[in-house]
Amino acid sequence: MPAPTTKRQSHGLSNALSGWLMSLPLALILFFFLLLPIVTIVIVSFWGATEYSIYPAFQFDNYEFLLTSPVTYQVFLNTIKYAVIAWAATLLIGFTIAYFLAFHVRSLVWQIALFLLCTIPFWTSNIIRMISWIPFLGRNGIANSTLIDLGIIDQPLEWLLYSDFAVILAFVHLYTLFMVVPIFNTMMRIDKSLLEAAYDNGATGFQTLTNVIIPLTKPGIMIGSIFVITLVMGDFITVRFMSGSQKANVGRLISNDIGLLQYPSACATAVILLMTVLLVIAVMLHFVDIRKEL
Amino acid sequence: MTTKQDKKGVSRRSVLKGAAATAGAALGSGAITGFPTIWAQNIKDVTLRQFGTGVSNLNDVAQKVKEDLGFTLEMTALDSDSVTQRAATQPDSFDIADIEYWICKKVWPTGNLQAMDTSKIANYDKIVGIFKSGKLTPESVIAQGTAPHSVGFVDGPDGTTFAKEETGWMTLIPTIYNADTLGIRPDLIGRPIESWTELLNPEFKGKASILDISSIGIMDMAMVCEAMGEIAYGDKGNMTREEIDKTIAIFTEAKKNGQFRAFWKTFDESVNLMASGEVVIQSMWSPAITAVKSRGIQCVYQPLKEGYRSWGGGIGLSKSLSGLELDAAYEYINWYLSGWVGGYLMRQGYYSAVPETSKEFMSENEWGYWFEGKEATDVITSPTGDKLAEAGETRDGGSFYDRMGAVACWNAVMDENQYMVRKWNEFIAA
Prior knowledge:
A: two-stranded antiparallel sheet; 2 strands; globular; B: 430 residues; alpha/beta
């Protein structure tokens, strides 16, 4: 659309003031729904709790208990383990799908059609997609009975369900699309003539991939990675259902505390988790300047 | 009947008349007798807000209240943690709290509930002994844990500490209770199960489960550890730190050895674990057994030689109730104990606080099967119509006196509760 050529009319407000006014709604929303809750969480993390109430205080009991318990470290390690494995798997699958859509499918119509196909599972709820794995992977589930019928195994595989495998499988299934979308988006914006130039200069397909496509898709990869890592690190329900409550991540520690009315302790855990996630993201942003690349 | 119908259809007036007649008939028929009726016109405007756990927060009850008593009962079902929280922190958000006795022990000191005058409770004398003296029969020994009678009475209308015996001022009016044990899949186990120790038997490695609700799970653990002879508890319902440590250590080791397939937190999870064959032995609740059975799968609520872990619930009144609402609440309590609800709950496998009145709302076959532990003479169905047992079957564990007489421990809240909760969290995370 051509930009309006008429000279902008003065509305009697200085530029600075109108700038402040325009950013005011967003600032207010962020203040009330992001900043304020986080500040509250930080404050409450220093409070004390009885069995059925919390009382204002300034004590380090919650942090002390958290940071001196070996279980905490074990659980944080587990959380990071889930995040790393789920991230690697979704990246591999997500990148492949996006690559296929962007460079192998030639017509725009088919690209859009196939892309929409990828989103169809997302029309149902997260929880339903997750729970539907349970009857599939169970001891007497479809996977085991098929493998037994085919004569591949004699005994049902116990580790299919209620295990780390099940948890990561569900994560990958749930979150791969979050990787596909931003990578596909950046790939679509790569100038095709760059690929032709690479080809003309004698680059092999693999060289084109590593020297042209991957560097140019970095922002997409980074955005997708941030999505997946934050989602996996903040999750509690997938871990609870897919591990049959047997495995724990930080989200489950928090949800257990909330269930038992130990809000201050839950807040302290949340603060530590928030700091961990921010740290991870800061490291990631160190490698790619998303702002510059977009 | 349709031919007799008035051409004009049913007018509003005739419906109201009919309703009044039904209410009158119900009153006159002796179905709900023996309590002071405050049949004031404005009682219809009264709305009582009740909240509690899912077990007795039934919409059928609210409907029947509207029919029989005329006022509106709003039901909110929550899990037991949320129930405790609400009773303790939001006294103005409810009129009637439907809570368990161990929750009462936690909540009563907050002063959010008011004691009830037993002289206004028509069937008070018929309430079973468990809730009054603590003894089912005069010879009974009182079980460990938070026994209902120990938190059932206070000294006066404003009493804040629990009384040792009946005082005429009740904290909760008992409504529902049961004896819990382990559920098993006899078809997949194929041998008799007699002791709580079987939960940790390596034979069931990867096929056992326990519930992930700390206050109840710790009791099941204690039943197992005691049966194994590993720990001799002073009081399973009020463990010391060392006892908690030892108990959790035994189960953590079992968990690390892969004894458990999963832990469950909600009713439906326990049903699915059992029905799918993932688990063959686990902590379970009575209606969950029923749900598994109604899918045509064998499942037994196995009586064990060490006894049952029991629980009881009751309704308490909010401190802020007064005047007409308070009268309505008393009327509701009297109606609750007058039999219809009791019959409904007993046909689900629970027990009513006043079994005698419930009997009138059950068939002879149902009474025999559920209460007396006799063989069913005909098909037994649930209040919602699902078939639960064939003729000739008997209830697991037998009669009321067999089951409630063998209670080893009541659900409890311990002095070291917070410590236990943290240890429990570590167990789940281990």
